[in-house]
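job 3f2a | input accepted
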Amino acid sequence: MTNSDQQQAAAVEAAADGRGGLSQSELDELVASSDTGGRSVRGPIGTLLMLVALAWSLFQLYIASPFGLFNDTLARSIHLGFAVFLGIMAFPAARTKFQMALGIVVPLALAALFMVAAKDGIATWWIPLPAIAVAATVILGSPKDRVPIWEWALAIIGALAALYLFLFYRDIANRVGAPIMQDYVVAVIGILILLEATRRALGPALMIVASVFLLYTVLGPNMPSIIAHKGNSLSEIVNHQWITTEGVFGIALGVSTSFVFLFVLFGSLLDRAGAGNYFIQVAFSLMGHMKGGPAKAAVVASAMTGLISGSSIANVVTTGTFTIPLMKKVGFSSEKAGAVEVASSVNGQIMPPVMGAAAFLMVEYVGIPYFDVVKHAFLPAVISYIALVYIVHLEALKAGMQGLPRAYTPKPIVQRLIGMAFAIAAICVLSFVVYYGMGWIRPAFPETASYIIFAFLTIVYVALLYVASKEEPLKLDDPNDEVTSLPLPGPTARSGLHFILPVVVLVWALMVDRLSPGLSAFWASAYMIFILLTQRPLMAIFRGESKLATDIKDGFLDLIDGLVTGARNMIGIGIATATAGIIVGAVSQTGVGSALADVVEVLSGGNILAILALTAVLSLILGMGLPTTANYIVVSALLAPVIVTLGQQNGLIVPLIAVHLFVFYFGIMADVTPPVGLASFAAAAVSGGDPIKTGVVAFFYSLRTAALPFLFIFNTELLLINVGWGQGIFVFVVATVAMLLFAAATQGWFLAKNRFYETIALLLVAFTLFRPGFWMDMVSPPYDEVAPSEITQAAADTMPGNDLRLRVAGVNDLGDPIEFVAILPIGEGATGEEKLETSGLVFREDGDKMIIDDVAFDSPAQNAGLDWDQEVLRVLKPVSQPTKYLMFIPALLLLALVVFLQRGRNGRPAREPQAA
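job 3f2a | predicted structure (916 res):
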């Protein structure tokens, strides 16, 4: 968040203090300043900006469609061209002293740097000119209500620089690695304007970090020896950062182009159709009557909105406008009401199927399908939301709160349970019929299957619209009005069931048909466009209120508005991924990753827990100024390989997806963490509370999200890695109970207020449920150590399919000595030697040393990282061990003791309950 944005948020918050709510125009201004652009231009210029945003959305739909045959590099160029143009035009530059100084100093400093980096024979007299021009636009000013001529020039030149790859693609392809003067000029201008667009749209932090990495690229020889490198010339920087796909136009921008835009657009279209309001109303009708009901409904509504939205602040304002005043009504303070909304909204980024933009980058960085990313992320996200509902319940118990009054008398509990069981069974049967029905249609009608499925979906859609037409239209009530009763759950749910269809299309395409994320989002968006165009006319016909021409026109305007909003929501993400590409490019160009591994190893002493803590702290610090996506790109590029490598050296084999999810989780935590948590400022502006206090409370509510990454690094079952259905359900139940106990410990309340020793006991029980193997390994070690010379006998004693753990010493790719742990799967064979040969290993003895003499190509041994001439230092062979789940027995006994102690005390504070 930029300084002016923070001041603006604080000012709006102060204005709202005592009112408990903001006007819609103030909220729109707050969201615009951070998400869609704070400049409101009327007249022809405003129309032009709308048309450019609309053209961007239509272009993205075209290239994502099955008919859009478009080179990926060219698409990235056009994508960035739109983002830079709209970034300059839609985001006025902040006018604080610090921001202005940054806008002037950075381009001038980079110009001097580029002149230093230029080799002899390259003209450099021109380099200061674009830097002076960019600095001049900062000095001349940036009004909010119009676009001055110098900003037109900045936006157009910046867009042309981004389009350079598109316009001269064939010429550039014929001179890769040998840039000409034209390339130098465009690259320098492009980098300077991209950084200025970054400052406007995303604040100073990302601009500063990218500039520091450019500085490091040039001044490598002058750096401390541990991170020094040879330094790169201007020619190498131009080639690497702008002319090829290693820097700005790299993987991050490619993911933004191919995947992220379509998902953001899908969420925008769904929200424009009314799904956001529908999710909120359904959540309130189902949960508003419970203790602290509005807060629980806020969590559920944010989870449902998180299904379709990847933006924290949009989620906060969408649901918070309605939920925060109602939370305050039942007894939550302004800060706690805002904090609940922040904690639940930020979690929307980890909620599949539409996770934050960074989740799509994992597809490329980790090299696994999006289906697998969703599978691994699903359990922690659900557990985290369940725990947040429980935290809200504990807060309600502490304060003696009640819920809002029901609109009906509930049926007996047994009858409700039977109804729920019947509904679940009906959904299962329907899913079974649809799954196998679709499976039969495709082989039977290969040419026309798509048309048949569309016809079937349309029939279901029309039927659901007919059902919805019989209910009263949902209206977003004024949350500041007196609440007399909650909406009825049945009619509320029936009034928008058709909104679930596009989500079903998306999930089906991703999970069942296993289409690419981009194509899945295209089909879901295409179906959403169909709904937007037909929803109003059909609903009016079913209600007998039809004004066909007006309804069609309104539907078309809704569609245009959704397409434009989707594009404007993407400005920040498009610019962030491009600028983060500068950082990734610098990392790959300078080799700082391997140097950083040495730094981290020195700082952490080689301890994997210390390395993880350093990574978490770095993510939080960078996240104070960087958006989630850029934060994830930077930290994963710098530290993800380091964690995997140092983990292996410490005997902990960490899956790459676990490390990337670890970085992702702490990246989104930065949206909460004070003093700069953007989502906390937005919530405080709505609640009228103090933004820093809101951030602190939200941070404590989010401790469960901070604990999960540490847990799934050491217990990958939480990510459903190598876990079957039965074990997956068992892990889910146990992990949920453990997380609820962790929440009770951190909130200081279980059945009654905790005493300090009860909090310690609850934390101990939660840890044991999460990681029972930690204690069992102490009681009964899973491996016996044998001498390296006895490795053949150890292999003979090991059953095929089990693993030997070998600690080996050798050299890395750079020739530096290393030690690491290799996990060697043992193959079939009658003797130990045969089993080792099946695994791809042949040894030779050198005195009392055991040396690897040969490693078969593409064998389990080679895949484990073993190579010729490495020395085996230690051999650990597996031994029979009691099941680790026996550790649950003492944990549950300790939990029973805590329950016994707390049941003897009063479970409520001595105060009158607060009614709604």
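job 3f2a | The CA atoms of residues 533 and 555 lie 5 Å apart.
job 3f2a | closed
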